[in-house]
């Protein structure tokens, strides 16, 4: 089968700020199902910003020659010992978060936890993938393979940050910064589906307008110097929760924007990893800052039920045909112009299975 792997760059090592490891298509054997595992014939894979960070060398323990990307959907073609045969032929998508069943705070055994598309776990830019039975879920019937592949990593991250840690419920007032982000967009769709009042920020007027169409009540451009005052004036502040992937200088502004007892559920730091905040705000406001990392199988199951019941469709920004076009999807992600997910449709050179 063909897979996309990262490749050691030739010549002298690039400066860390210029690193972007090349990729290539490689031929490897189709894996045999082992006890408790499922072989999925992948039909589509999708990218997350993390996949670019991996090529930029920003993740620990990067191993050249590893199959890339975390999100995928396809058909079950074989199962290992102990897995129900009835799974064969089912249209599925895969939870990227492997080794976390339902423990509310962290994986049951952090040493056995990993995310697909980062060595030693396999990736989804491949014709087939072998994964544990526990991370294989029926694809809701209203979704195509491309839409299914668009959901797992960003959808699960948004679900945990919004529903589990953000405690979002009908009528809550929720702020979602940087709405062009893959995770942020799912948080918006889920929050609107739950019945929350959602406000968003973006650096792009076009993305703000699209978020309003998806159900946001109001939107502010964070590139305006006075965006916090503008947001406070328009929305009245008092947010129950901020679902945030930006951090940096924004965090102290979110402390101002939440209501007493409000939650900042943080999953990313695109605006800066180091944050200065005035600690008395935390206790005088009874504020809670909660770190949200991916999610578990119980949350994936709950998210899948919600998607099936509400017939939610993910925003797909672009679909590229064939593994040989994956680099175009990576370039689009690097440029950051997308609104929604970037998907690669997988064509099969070898159709023995
Ligand atoms: N904890 C986890 O489990 C987890 C999972 C997935 C991702 N992440 C992290 O979450 C972050 C976002 O990931 P992603 O895949 O959603 O990335 P992405 O699709 O590339 O989105 C990044 C978004 O950040 C927004 N942004 C940039 N500067 C901003 C600022 N100053 N203020 C507010 N928003 C700003 C942009 O929004 P606009 O385009 O609207 O301006 C951009 O679309 C990354 O740091 C990633 O590593 C964490």
Automatic annotation (TrEMBL):
Pfam families: ADH_N (PF08240), ADH_zinc_N (PF00107). Residues 18-344 form the Enoyl reductase (ER) domain. Residues 1-21 are annotated as: Disordered. Transmembrane segments: none annotated. It comes from the Eukaryota. CDD domains: MDR7. One of its GO terms (molecular function) is oxidoreductase activity. Signal peptide: none annotated. InterPro entries: ADH-like_C (IPR013149), ADH-like_N (IPR013154), ER (IPR020843), GroES-like_sf (IPR011032), NAD(P)-bd_dom_sf (IPR036291), Zinc_ADH-like (IPR052711). This is NAD(P)-binding protein. The lineage of its organism: Eukaryota, Fungi, Fungi incertae sedis, Chytridiomycota, Chytridiomycota incertae sedis.
């Amino acid at each position: 089968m063909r897979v996309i792997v990262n490749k050691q760059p030739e010549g002298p090592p690039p400066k860390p700020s210029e690193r972007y490891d090349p990729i290539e298509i490689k031929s490897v054997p189709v894996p045999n199902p082992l006890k408790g595992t499922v072989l999925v014939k992948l039909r589509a894979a999708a990218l997350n910003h993390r996949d670019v960070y991996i090529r930029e060398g920003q993740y620990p323990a990067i191993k050249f020659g590893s199959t890339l990307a975390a999100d995928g959907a396809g058909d079950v073609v074989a199962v290992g010992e102990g897995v129900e045969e009835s799974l064969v032929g089912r249209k599925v998508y895969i939870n990227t978060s492997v080794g976390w069943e339902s423990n509310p705070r962290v994986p049951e055994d952090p040493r056995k936890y990993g995310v697909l598309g980062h060595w030693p776990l396999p990736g989804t830019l491949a014709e087939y993938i072998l994964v544990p039975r526990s991370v294989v879920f029926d694809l809701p019937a209203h979704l195509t393979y491309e839409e299914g592949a668009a959901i797992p990593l960003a959808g699960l991250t948004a679900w945990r940050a919004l529903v589990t840690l953000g405690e979002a419920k009908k009528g809550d007032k929720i702020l979602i910064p940087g709405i062009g982000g893959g995770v942020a967009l799912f948080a918006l769709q889920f929050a609107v589906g739950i019945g929350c009042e959602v406000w968003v920020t973006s650096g792009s007027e076009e993305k703000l307008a699209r978020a309003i169409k998806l159900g946001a009540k109001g939107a502010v451009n964070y590139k305006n110097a006075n965006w916090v005052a503008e947001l406070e004036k328009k929305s009245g502040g008092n947010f129950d929760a901020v679902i945030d992937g930006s951090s940096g200088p924004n965090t102290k502004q979110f402390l101002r924007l939440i209501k007493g007892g409000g939650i900042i559920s943080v999953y990313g730091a695109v605006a800066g990893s180091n944050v200065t905040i005035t600690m008395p705000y935390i206790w005088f406001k009874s504020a809670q800052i909660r770190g949200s990392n991916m999610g578990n199988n119980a949350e994936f199951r709950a998210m899948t039920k919600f998607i099936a019941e509400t017939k939610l469709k993910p925003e797909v920004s672009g679909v590229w045909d064939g593994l040989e076009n994956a680099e175009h999807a990576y370039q689009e992600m690097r440029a950051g112009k997308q609104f929604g997910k970037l998907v690669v449709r997988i064509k099969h050179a070898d159709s023995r299975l």
